[in-house]
Design goal:
Helix content: 40-55%
CATH architecture of the largest domain: 3-Layer(aba) Sandwich
CATH superfamily of the largest domain: NAD(P)-binding Rossmann-like Domain
CATH topology of the largest domain: Rossmann fold
Order of helices and strands: HEHHEEHEHEEHEHHHHHEEHHHHHHH
GO molecular function: 3-hydroxybutyryl-CoA epimerase activity; delta(3)-delta(2)-enoyl-CoA isomerase activity; enoyl-CoA hydratase activity; long-chain (3S)-3-hydroxyacyl-CoA dehydrogenase (NAD+) activity; NAD+ binding
GO biological process, one term: fatty acid beta-oxidation
Protein name: Enoyl-CoA hydratase
Pfam families: 3HCDH, 3HCDH_N
Number of domains: 3
InterPro entries: 3-OHacyl-CoA_DH_CS, 3-OHacyl-CoA_DH_NAD-bd, 3HC_DH_C, 6-PGluconate_DH-like_C_sf, FA_oxidation_alpha_subunit, NAD(P)-bd_dom_sf
Length: about 400
């Protein structure tokens, strides 16, 4: 939708006509809602729909400038797509893969023209989420990066260029935050209490609700990749298999941590979701509030802050500003706190480090502060020194 909205002709390629028709119907439904709200006129809806075409073959691919691939998170399948697109597209065509976890250099390793391969990670729902992660691998050309950044901006997105490592930036800082919420759940904290604690802190949704929305099965696929590539600090509690074996994928399957009426995939007007209390028995939990909401929220958020600092230190994000933009637009980090890096400046780096050490003593080595934060605390540094000087 965002490409058509930007004025580009869009050709949808799928393995079946049903898939193409579903994509077009979904697109029309979004446009129709905007028409009903008088955001778009009838002629604008028609113009956008006329920019869409589709087919089950690669006919016409010899004319396209950019291919945005969005198949399942399977490396073998991604490799197949690279080979097929290169066989049918022109030599200059950019292959942009919309992956949330697979390293781009692994996808590009079968490419005849790896300089044209890049990651372009959209966030769901694409029509609402403003962020796009642009992920070049070591062999991606500067012209490919520039073209994709320009494309994202023309789509009305806010792009940040991030490093090619597992989870990229947004999912990497989100994972330890989500893991900590799972640890708290298994310690007996009720699901609603956890979600409400992070809502009160300023996040748009709680971590348990977020896992239901994203899909428990998606979390189960991403976490092992992060553990393998980045280490044991990403190893969360073992809850995914138990839930998936009970058919719990989240909202899309009608049940996860919450119940969704009538196996509903779409929330009805006025519907308030209810915790499925069978989850507690399934996980061997006796729910009871033991910790106040702010303490819960800080325990989860500290993990995100520490990982964000580590990402900056490793060059996964190019600046504190990019890291703040990515967290606010990609995760919904409380905007009034300014993002993880501004928030750490507000708290004081020394205070953040002290809190991380305290949590490490209580809950384990996963809370140990990264070297960047320790060094900054010792030197009295901040992430935004120019702002400190102007005060």
């Amino acid at each position: 939708m965002s490409a058509a909205k930007a004025g580009y002709p869009v050709q949808i390629k799928d393995i079946s006509n049903d898939g193409i028709l579903n994509a077009m119907a979904y697109h029309y439904g979004l446009l129709e809602k905007q028409r009903q709200r008088k955001i778009l006129r009838n002629t604008q809806v028609q113009q956008q729909m006329l920019r869409l075409s589709g087919g089950t073959t690669y006919r016409g691919f010899e004319k396209v400038d950019v291919v945005i691939e969005a198949v399942f998170e399977d490396l073998t399948l991604k490799h197949q797509m690279v080979k097929e697109v290169e066989a049918h597209a022109k030599p200059e065509t950019i292959f942009a893969t919309n992956t949330s976890s697979l390293p781009i250099h692994q996808i590009a390793e079968v490419a005849a023209r790896p300089d044209n391969v890049i990651g372009l990670h959209y966030f769901s729902p694409v029509e609402k989420m403003p962020l796009v992660e642009v992920i070049p691998h070591q062999g991606t050309s500067e012209s490919t990066i520039a073209t994709v950044v320009k494309l994202a901006k023309q789509q009305g997105k806010t792009p940040i260029v991030v490093g090619d490592s597992a989870g990229f930036y947004v999912n990497r800082i989100l994972a330890p935050y989500m893991n900590e919420a799972a640890y708290l759940l298994l310690s007996g904290e009720p699901i609603e209490h956890l979600d409400n604690a992070l809502l009160d802190f300023g996040f748009p949704v709680g971590p348990i609700t977020l896992l239901d929305e994203v899909g428990i099965d998606i979390g189960a696929k991403i976490m092992p990749i992060l553990v393998q590539e980045l280490g044991e600090r990403f190893q969360g509690p073992d809850v995914f298999d138990v839930l998936l074996n009970d058919g719990r994928k989240g909202r899309k399957s009608g049940k996860g941590f919450y119940r969704y009426a009538g196996q509903g995939r779409h929330k009805k007007a006025g519907e308030k979701k209810q915790v499925d209390k069978r989850v507690y028995k399934l996980l061997g939990i006796r729910p009871e509030r033991n910790v106040d909401g702010h303490t819960l929220a800080m325990r989860c958020t500290l993990m995100m802050l520490n990982e964000a600092a580590r990402c900056l230190d490793e060059g996964v994000v190019q600046s504190a500003r990019d890291g703040d933009i990515g967290a606010i637009f990609g995760i919904g980090f409380p905007p009034f706190l300014g993002g993880p890096f501004r928030y750490m400046d507000q708290l004081g780096i020394a205070s953040v480090v002290a809190q991380l050490y305290q949590h490490a003593d209580l809950y384990g080595e996963r809370f140990l502060p990264c070297e960047r934060l320790v060094a900054m605390a010792q030197a009295g540094q901040v992430f935004y020194p120019a702002e400190l000087e102007s005060q």
